[in-house]
Design brief:
Helix content: 55-70%
Shape: elongated
Low-confidence stretches: 4-9, 14-18, 97-130
Mean pLDDT: 76
Largest sheet: 2 strands, antiparallel
Organism: Actinidia rufa
Strand content: under 5%
Protein name: DUF4220 domain-containing protein
Keywords: Membrane, Transmembrane, Transmembrane helix
Number of domains: 2
InterPro entries: DUF4220 (IPR025315)
Strand order of the largest sheet: 1-2
């Protein structure tokens, strides 16, 4: 390994007493490239993980054969919080001079004679310190927004709904980290104001996740929308769409049985009425022909889909008053920040490559927000919402739902079973 010995007496009179050997192992350029791109790669990967979880997080209820997709969902879900913590930690140090060694030392561990040099507020020294990393102050709120998770996957396992305190602590700690990043990257210009405005959708998104998980922790959670039996009967009889009737009947079965609640005791009168309805539906389908008999079994399929969306996703939040208000505020802030950022343009002295990455992060956050709203509007829970709040808007949403998704796959078509021979072989 080559060794280059540099005599300190040639550098400064204060270093005449000491010489420092410098080793070059050939990886210096690689280290510089990694230090330049590690944070950029990390924030882009966090955004990619959220997009991947949005599209494939819900597919595990429809497909059990794609093991690779399920493993990727599991890994990305588990490492999202860890990567976000690391990224926020690195963002909190973006204003440190990367050419200056740690520990207050000067050149290669020697005393720093420039340490006593005065820093003029607003002068050249301060400008060179803050301007190159000014765009990265916008990255921290986007990371906090991504920690809120996609609407299709709030928790990976049902037991996580009882750990809402952990997510609340995560909201508090990561929120403080984000605020600290905004403080250390603050500059008296429009970009810092945009970063502060971008903090609002980040807190809303993460807070919505905590709100949903907290609502499920009681053990008797039945969704954000509830209908009584009279409303279900009236709407089901007057509904002209066959899909709407099936969803309402499945919701009625779910509301009576509550199979997701442990040791739940059904009302005998309601249970008897449910059995009579199901028997009547089967008899009617048998009289019509074998082609319509599948509707009786689609009730169970739809019911399981309603339960899955209720326990593992954020479906139903936009159907509440506060949920719709918060989503509107979040979406408005994201669009305002993106438009203002494009109008402001590239700040002078920023690091090359940070501007397009910032655009990608803002566009990705808006895409996740729009995609999350669309997922909720095309879910079966929209029929329940339309029954509770009938009107022109509800009719428009139902027609769009019927047109866009006439027949869709709601489950994988596979069921876990015990093989008798395998059981005997293991004994």
């Amino acid at each position: 390994m080559p060794c280059i010995r540099i005599c300190a007496t040639d550098l400064h009179p204060a270093y005449s007493y000491k010489c420092q050997p410098v080793y070059n192992n050939g990886f210096e350029e690689l280290r510089k490239i990694w230090e330049e791109w590690d944070l950029r790669i990390m924030v882009l990967f966090i955004l990619f993980a959220q997009v991947y979880l949005h599209f494939f997080g819900r597919r595990r209820r429809k497909s059990m054969a794609r093991v690779l997709v399920n493993v990727n969902v599991w890994l990305l879900y588990l490492f999202s919080d860890l990567l976000a913590t690391i990224a926020l930690g690195k963002l909190s140090k973006v204003n440190e001079d990367p050419t200056k060694p740690k520990g207050g030392s000067g050149f290669h561990g020697l005393p720093d004679t420039n340490k006593t040099m005065p820093q003029i507020p607003g002068g050249l020294n301060e400008t060179n310190k803050t301007i190159p990393h000014i765009l990265r102050g916008l990255w921290a709120p986007v990371i906090l927004f991504c920690l809120g998770g996609p609407d299709t996957l709030t928790v990976l396992r049902l037991e996580e709904n009882h750990l809402w305190v952990r997510h609340l602590i995560g909201l508090f700690t990561q929120g403080l980290r984000t605020v600290y990043v905004l403080i250390v990257t603050w500059n008296p210009n429009g970009l810092s104001v945009l970063a502060l405005l971008l903090l609002i959708p980040g807190i809303i998104k993460y807070g919505e996740r905590v709100w949903v998980i907290r609502s499920r922790s009681g053990g008797k959670y039945q969704g954000f929308i509830k209908l009584d039996e009279t409303t279900i009967d009236e709407t089901s009889n007057s509904a002209s769409q066959s899909n709407a009737k099936l969803v309402l009947q499945a919701y009625y079965c779910f509301q009576i049985l509550n199979p997701h609640i442990d040791d739940y005791e059904c009302n005998r009168k309601s249970l008897k009425s449910l059995i009579e309805r199901f028997s009547k539906s089967v008899d009617e389908n048998l009289a019509k022909g074998d082609t319509d008999i599948e509707n009786s079994f689609r009730l169970i399929e739809i019911e399981l889909g309603l339960i899955y969306d209720m326990l593992f996703s954020k479906v139903g939040t936009v159907f509440t008053v506060w949920g719709s208000i918060l989503r509107s505020i979040s979406f408005s802030c994201l669009v305002s920040v993106l438009v203002s950022f494009i109008l402001i343009g590239r700040p002078p002295g920023h690091l090359k490559g940070d501007f397009p990455i910032t655009i990608i992060l803002l566009v990705g956050a808006i895409f996740l927000e729009i995609a999350g709203i669309l997922v909720q509007l095309v879910s079966d829970w929209v029929f329940v919402w339309a029954c509770k709040y009938p009107g022109r808007l509800a009719n428009l949403v139902l027609r769009a739902h019927e047109f866009l998704i006439p027949k869709r796959k709601r489950w994988s078509g596979f069921m876990g079973t015990i093989q008798f021979f395998e059981l005997l072989r293991g004994i």
